[in-house]
Amino acid sequence: MSTSLPPQIAEKLKFNGGLIPAIAQDAKSHEVLMMAWMNEAALAQTLTTGQATYWSRSRNEIWVKGATSGHTQKVISIALDCDGDTLLLQVEQIGAACHTGERTCFHQPLPLKAQA
Amino acid sequence: MSTSLPPQIAEKLKFNGGLIPAIAQDAKSHEVLMMAWMNEAALAQTLTTGQATYWSRSRNEIWVKGATSGHTQKVISIALDCDGDTLLLQVEQIGAACHTGERTCFHQPLPLKAQA
């Protein structure tokens, strides 16, 4: 398994503290499912395997999404943003993206017009 | 203009180094437009004004999206993710979200199956 990126890709990317945020969007429903982090090895593994693979900041290890839950993400495409510091993955999500069992991780609405 | 959050909102949020990533999604087309950062004051201003307001890490200042370009984002709704460390905004985007003139910032595809 390659843990480094081709130079022509690596030179476009701005890792911050070795990490880059990666947004996963459902390729069919277009729901934003989650945001997680990748290091170079996680992105290299994602590109070579086509399975979304992140860096767990809490466990300090490579994390193949769904490796234990079965809720994997098959990557359809990846795009880098204009300044090279954020990734957007289009994925086929098996089951729930969120560890709570919710379809997406973004399930807590915040009230607009809230006053302190 | 309030620069702090109501306690019942603040207690749900995990800022990292004073910042939280905020993903902006087009409420109609469902395109993911950009990811930027908010500090507490930027989020408080977003919630009270309904206009997406970020923290510019390069300029070290509050940044009302579109204040100079006219490409504002009217916020339709905001959701917090399961672990309280990422925001998702549904917005009405006026004009281009990206400073390059592209509709979204995510316009550089990365090749899958890339080998180093």
TrEMBL record, chains A, B:
Alphabetized UniProt keyword annotations: Amino-acid biosynthesis, Cytoplasm, Histidine biosynthesis, Hydrolase
UniProt catalytic activity: 1-(5-phospho-beta-D-ribosyl)-5'-AMP + H2O = 1-(5-phospho-beta-D-ribosyl)-5-[(5-phospho-beta-D-ribosylamino)methylideneamino]imidazole-4-carboxamide
SUPFAM superfamilies: HisI-like (SSF141734)
Record bears the keyword Cytoplasm: yes
Keyword Ligase in annotation: no
Enzyme class, broadest EC rank: hydrolase
Single GO MF descriptor: phosphoribosyl-AMP cyclohydrolase activity
Gene Ontology process terms (BP): L-histidine biosynthetic process
Domain (Phosphoribosyl-AMP cyclohydrolase) ranges: 34-107
HAMAP family assigned to the protein according to its UniProt record, in alphabetical order: HisI
PANTHER family: HISTIDINE BIOSYNTHESIS BIFUNCTIONAL PROTEIN (PTHR42945), HISTIDINE BIOSYNTHESIS BIFUNCTIONAL PROTEIN HIS7 (PTHR42945:SF1)
Name recorded for this polypeptide: Histidine biosynthesis bifunctional protein HisIE
